[in-house]
């Protein structure tokens, strides 16, 4: 049950400002003209939950970064750094001590203390609490307040990557179901209103401990249709769209004098997943033939309009654990043909129509993904592989992938920031339903290296083990890497101060000005 002392002052605040502020932005209700300092950002959908312990969809997470602060944070190299915590240390293989900043206040006025942190992270190990995030805290045994500004986290077993799980917003002690629609955080913006399928309105937190935001507030306006997002940007009814426009639409908007475009390397990763139990695809020579046959540069240049870069592996180049020295495919159809020949898949009729072998690729109905699949299909045809492309609604595709009902599929990993993704995706103990090893990849040496990285005491040790694992994975090719997405913000020319992070979080909005 939510504590009233954490709720009442804020509820009074909402009652006093919500209607006129939210209405003024849209010109309804109150007759006050729009405030020039309010930045309006178009988003695809309404948030599922403004409680950061529960909301895991993209819109929810974007809003969480504005309303809340994280106990720890990630820098531009995706390393864990301080957030609400001023410092932390590992005192033994299973114990972490976190020291909080003093004087940080929630939007309702009460000070952040260790009790709020204990309550937040204790939720994830509470059997009665339902959250899609609980899996990340399976190794957490208990969390305790040492004193008002010190928290102790005790694990069940050593887990070197545990601090990244502390990159999590902190909610007030006692917060209940009301947090879903009426959030209270310590972040740069205070919640004002939420109209489902319409907008979320926030106002600048003048008492923010890092300094008041450069603008008066942010409105997240729900615009599900891409063409409408572009039109509203042109008209000026929205100020900005971040990563929610296709490369073709961005290319068209680039010619507009009323907009500017900001880019940064991203962490989203597109790939072709492979069923390692398939009698054809379990042969590494066949997997390598696929890798050499696919022209990734052409996909990046023509389909992505340059808004991507060819990928090497699941970890992004921005990651501190990324190893750029690993094996990577070039576009080499002749080498692909030689590998197929060596694997016993010879051309049955010379220049005739019969293929060397037939494979099937499952994709979503997304238009870009279907175009990409057509390019892959043509590339494989050039080396004698007949690729049957089948498109499905996402729910159906995803269900088939989880069941292992595929030969090949294409999907994207979004916002990869933690090298522990190597464990969750490629460790043999992470096969469904336990993890994300949906292609049923098994390599005992990769398992050993990942386990060693988890138990390592320093980042230097972890980097070595993760690097060795990445080299083996690149050679085994359980995935055919396609591209890393480039983050793109398209904004009106009166917007200044846009600087995207690798994960394209909305934290940058507090430094944005509107003239």
The CATH H-level homologous superfamily of the domain at 266-486: Dipeptide-binding Protein, Domain 3
CATH C-level of the domain at 266-486: Alpha Beta
State which percent range the strand residues make up.
Answer: 15-25%
Q: Which residue ranges are poorly predicted, with pLDDT under 50 across at least 5 consecutive positions?
A: 1-34
Instruction: Give Rg in angstroms.
Output: 25 Å
The biggest beta sheet is recorded as:
11 strands, mixed
Strands, total number = 19
Residues in helices, as a percent range: 25-40%
Average pLDDT metric: 91
CATH architecture of the domain at 266-486: Roll
What is the CA–CA distance across the termini?
44 Å
Please explain how this structure is put together:
The protein is of the alpha+beta class and 515 residues long. Among the domains are: 102 residues, Dipeptide-binding Protein, domain 1 (Alpha-Beta Complex), CATH 3.90.76.10; 221 residues, Dipeptide-binding Protein, Domain 3 (Dipeptide-binding Protein, domain 3, Roll), CATH 3.10.105.10. The chain contains 13 helices and 19 strands. Strand 6 and strand 7 form a beta hairpin.
């Amino acid at each position: 049950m939510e504590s009233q002392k954490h709720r009442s002052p804020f509820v009074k605040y909402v009652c006093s400002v919500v209607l006129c502020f939210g209405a003024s932005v849209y010109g309804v209700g109150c007759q006050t003209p729009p405030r020039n300092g309010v930045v309006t950002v178009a988003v695809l959908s309404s948030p599922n939950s403004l409680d950061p312990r529960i909301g895991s969809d993209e819109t929810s997470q974007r809003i969480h970064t504005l309303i809340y602060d994280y106990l720890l944070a990630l820098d531009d190299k995706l390393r864990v750094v301080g957030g609400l915590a001023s410092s932390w240390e590992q005192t033994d293989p299973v114990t972490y001590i976190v020291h909080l900043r003093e004087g940080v206040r929630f939007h309702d006025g009460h000070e952040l203390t260790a009790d709020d942190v204990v309550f937040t992270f204790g939720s994830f190990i509470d059997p009665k609490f339902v959250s899609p995030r609980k899996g990340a805290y399976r190794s957490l045994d208990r969390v305790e307040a040492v004193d008002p500004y010190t928290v102790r986290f005790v694990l069940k077993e050593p887990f070197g990557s545990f601090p990244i799980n502390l990159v999590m917003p902190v909610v007030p002690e006692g917060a209940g179901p009301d947090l879903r629609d009426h959030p209270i955080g310590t972040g740069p913006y205070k919640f004002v209103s939420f109209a489902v399928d319409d907008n979320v309105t926030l106002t600048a937190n003048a008492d923010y401990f890092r300094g008041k935001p450069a603008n008066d507030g942010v409105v997240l306006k729900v615009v599900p249709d891409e063409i409408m997002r572009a039109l509203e940007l042109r008209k000026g009814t929205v100020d900005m769209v971040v990563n929610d426009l296709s490369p073709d639409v961005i290319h068209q908007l680039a010619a507009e004098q009323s907009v500017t475009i900001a880019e940064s390397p991203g962490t989203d990763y597109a790939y072709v997943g492979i069923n390692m139990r398939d009698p054809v695809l379990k042969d590494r020579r066949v997997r390598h033939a696929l890798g050499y046959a696919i022209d990734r540069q052409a996909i990046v240049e023509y389909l992505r309009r340059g808004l991507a870069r060819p990928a090497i592996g699941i970890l992004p180049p921005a990651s501190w654990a990324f190893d750029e020295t690993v094996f990577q495919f070039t576009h080499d159809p002749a080498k692909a043909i030689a590998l197929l020949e060596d694997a016993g898949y010879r051309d049955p009729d010379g220049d005739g129509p019969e293929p060397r072998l037939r494979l099937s690729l499952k994709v979503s109905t997304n238009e870009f993904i279907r175009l990409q699949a057509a390019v892959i299909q043509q590339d494989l045809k050039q080396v004698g592989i007949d690729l049957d492309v089948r498109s499905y609604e996402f729910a159906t595709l995803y269900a088939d992938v989880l069941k292992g009902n595929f030969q090949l599929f294409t999907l994207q990993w979004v916002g990869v920031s933690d090298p522990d993704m190597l464990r969750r995706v490629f460790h043999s103990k992470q096969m469904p339903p336990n993890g994300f090893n949906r292609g049923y990849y098994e390599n005992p040496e990769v398992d050993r290296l990942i386990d060693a990285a988890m138990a390592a005491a320093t980042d230097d040790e972890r980097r070595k083990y993760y690097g060795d694992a990445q080299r083996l994975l690149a050679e085994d090719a359980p995935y055919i890497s396609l591209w890393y997405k480039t983050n793109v913000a398209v904004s009106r020319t009166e917007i200044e101060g846009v600087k995207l992070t690798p994960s394209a979080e909305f934290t940058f909005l507090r430094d944005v000005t509107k003239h």
